[in-house]
Amino acid sequence: MDHEPASPEPKKRKASSKTSKSKSKSRSDKMPPIASPLSTHNRNDPGKPAEAGVIRRVYVENFMCHRKLTVDLCRNVNFIYGQNGSGKSAILAAIQICLGAGARRTHRATNLKELVRKEAGSNCNGAKVRVTVLNRGDDGYQHDVYGDSITIERSISLRGGYNGYKLLDENGVEKSRNKKDLDAMLDQLNIQVENPVAVLDQEEAKKFLCGKPEDKYNFFTKATELERMDRAYANLSDNLEDMSEAASRIRETLAPKEQTVKALKHEYDQFKELDKLEAKVGQLRVTAVWAKRNEMQEKADGAQETLEKLEQKVEKGKESLEKAKAEADVTHDKEELLRANIEKLTKEAEEARSTKQEREGELKDVEGPSRKIHKELAHIKEEHRAE
Question: How many CB atoms lie within 10 A of CB 80?
Answer without folding.
Answer: 13
